[in-house]
Write a structure and sequence with these properties.
By secondary structure, the chain is an alpha/beta fold. It is built from twelve helices and seven strands. About 40% of the residues lie in helices and about 20% in strands.
């Protein structure tokens, strides 16, 4: 049996009273990540994404509007890829974000796609049909890259699958050059986020607590991003933020 590894949860500076809505979210949310060892959880994530759910990932992204709205974010330069020469796409999945990066980055930009699941990387290759990306199966907390190698990172709905979020963010900061920017998207601790957690066996994050962990890792929030004005009004769509590595 694998040794149980203590989990790192985002800290809370002030204990918050549990409202009925929060209690319901906690009932719905999948807590597997806090109950098993890191290796057991990684194996579960590989199984989920190598199976039918992973095969439907691109379709789910389309139906949830994350795919078309994500493209609009790049097209409108809300997150501007111009000028970036070494781009890392973390947790490439079926290549949803990578497709936008290829389309809206400079033609000479070098794109590296990583994912914990080799099967998802195969799907990304088939989807992208491009010889520009380099693909590597890798764990976010143990990246096989040199310090300061990338001047831009995209990390879309990956961090919720990292058992030790601090270790993951510190490792991302390590491979980023000073002043490098990151587009970070992750699941928020809302009711819709709880159902996402149930479906994809992931955790959710409190927005302010996550920003604090980013700060401690050397990543400063530059601006919050929203898919649409409606998403901003209702605080929907998850956490989407541009971060920059301190120089």
């Amino acid at each position: 049996m694998a040794t149980q590894t203590p989990k790192t949860r985002p800290p809370s500076s002030h204990p918050r009273k549990k409202t009925p809505a929060k209690k319901l979210r906690q009932i719905v949310e999948n807590d597997l990540i806090s109950r098993v060892s890191d290796e057991e959880y990684r194996d579960k994530v590989r199984d989920v994404y190598a199976g039918p759910q992973g095969a439907l990932l691109a379709t789910c992204s389309l139906l949830s509007l994350h795919l078309p709205l994500g493209e609009r974010m790049f097209r409108r330069r809300q997150f501007d890829l111009r000028g970036a020469k070494q781009i890392l796409d973390v947790g490439s999945g079926a290549g949803q974000l990578a497709a936008h990066v290829l389309k809206y980055s400079d033609p000479d930009a070098r794109l590296t796609c990583i994912d914990l699941s080799p099967e998802m990387l195969r799907r990304a290759r088939n989807r992208l049909k491009s010889d520009r990306p380099i693909y590597a199966a890798a764990d976010l907390t143990r990246l096989p890259f040199a310090d300061g190698q990338f001047d831009c990172v995209t990390c879309g709905f990956v961090l919720e699958h990292v058992p030790d979020v601090r270790a993951g963010l510190v490792e991302l900061a390590r491979v980023m050059s000073p002043g490098a920017r990151m587009l970070l998207m992750t699941t928020e601790d809302s009711m819709s986020g709880a159902w996402t957690s149930r479906l994809w066996c992931c955790r959710t994050y409190n927005r302010q607590e996550l920003y604090q962990i980013c700060h401690e890792a050397g990543l400063e929030r530059r601006k919050q991003l929203w898919y649409t004005r409606m998403h901003k009004m209702f605080k929907a769509g998850g956490i989407c933020v541009e971060l920059v590595k301190r120089g």
